[in-house]
Amino acid sequence: MAASAPRLARLGAMLARQAAPMQQQFRMLSDKAAAEAVKAAPEVAKAESASSGSKIRGFQAILFGGLGAGFLYGYSLFTSKAPESGPLAGPPALPVVTKTSKPGDYPAVRASIADLLDNDNYDDGSYGPVLVRLAWHASGTYDKKTGTGGSNGATMRFGPECEWAANAGLAVARGLLEKVKAEHPWISYADLWTLAGVVAIEQMGGPVIPWRPGRVDDADGSRIVPDGRLPDATQGAKHLRDVFHRMGFDDRDIVALSGAHTLGRCHADRSGFVGPWTNAPTTFSNLYFQELVNNKWKPKKWDGPLQYEDKTGTLMMLSSDLALLSDRTFRKWVHLYAKDEEAFFKDFSVAFGKLLELGVPFPQQPAA
């Protein structure tokens, strides 16, 4: 009923505006009738009385007829679907859910996520890559020294975190998962976002990622950390170490997690960069490392920020990607993963699972 109050207020105001001319007309007619009654001669009083009675009955018909029409019109507005725009527009409609799952039914949540992934009208035909990015960015703000940040709290629901440049475009992923949240209202957003990344990787051919529930949602954005903790694609090896070592990762983890660039593409209206890293952006594989090693990369000639392209101009790499080749320690892991997909899958599974759990005070329970 609380959600109906604004709509009732708008309806009342509209009906009042529509009734105002009728009220004015009624007052004018009443004043005129009173003046005529004063001037009338006694001998015509009886006739005038009959006439006045007729007018009054006419006024009553107009009045009650108008009120009845107004009531029916108002009732139809209240009971019909709210228009999508205009002064009587209601709030955005929530997904229609006929049945919700039982608390703790994580296989059902996984199935709901998997059902949303394929969409020919989005990017390369899958929402999988953007869901992986959501899980990554929701978790990658952790600082092991202060114990702040990480996936617990799902603070990206609030500003300013949702408005950070690094999170541009992730409203698509958050909005997409609202349908899953409606079907399974008992799961926290923090658990849902991280599980969505896990399911997306597995559905796109990647390794099984260890995941367990237990994250809780913050009520507000008071625990949002300062901007700048997520990787900057324009930076080099030192920056990568600063970001990942802050979370507790080593150099091997850095290269393994960078392998997530085998998925998806950059968008000029989000990061400013454009293009995919591989020719199979919806398949999880070691192709990113193969492209990195086997192609020759040259600066792209365009008006956008510095990025690199292969000889065809189809694929791209960022400065942070090429830093993996220029740094001796990083480079040895790049070459290993380019040759051995199984080794990459194993290391990525461990590192990504760790990323999703940073800063989460888990209760004692088995993995889902």
UniProtKB/TrEMBL annotation:
Stored InterPro entries: Ccp1-like, Haem_peroxidase, Haem_peroxidase_sf, Peroxidase_I, Peroxidases_AS, Peroxidases_heam-ligand_BS
| UniProt-recorded Gene Ontology molecular function terms | cytochrome-c peroxidase activity; heme binding; L-ascorbate peroxidase activity; metal ion binding
- Gene3D superfamilies registered for this protein in UniProt: 1.10.520.10, Peroxidase, domain 2 (1.10.420.10)
Which BP terms from GO are recorded? cellular response to oxidative stress; hydrogen peroxide catabolic process; response to reactive oxygen species
Cellular location(s): Mitochondrion intermembrane space; Mitochondrion matrix
Q: Name one Pfam family in it.
A: peroxidase
Record field: catalytic activity: 2 Fe(II)-[cytochrome c] + H2O2 + 2 H(+) = 2 Fe(III)-[cytochrome c] + 2 H2O
Q: Which domain of life is it from?
A: Eukaryota
List cellular component terms (GO).
mitochondrial intermembrane space; mitochondrial matrix
Question: Which UniProt key words apply to this protein?
Answer: Heme, Iron, Metal-binding, Mitochondrion, Oxidoreductase, Peroxidase, Transit peptide
Indicate the enzyme's highest-level EC class. Answer: oxidoreductase
Q: Where is the Plant heme peroxidase family profile domain?
A: 107-368
User: Has keyword Heme?
Assistant: yes
Required cofactors, per record?
heme b
This enzyme's EC code(s): 1.11.1.11, 1.11.1.5
- Tell me the function of this protein: Destroys radicals which are normally produced within the cells and which are toxic to biological systems.
By sequence similarity, the record places it as follows: Belongs to the peroxidase family. Ascorbate peroxidase subfamily.
Q: What is this protein called?
A: Cytochrome c peroxidase, mitochondrial
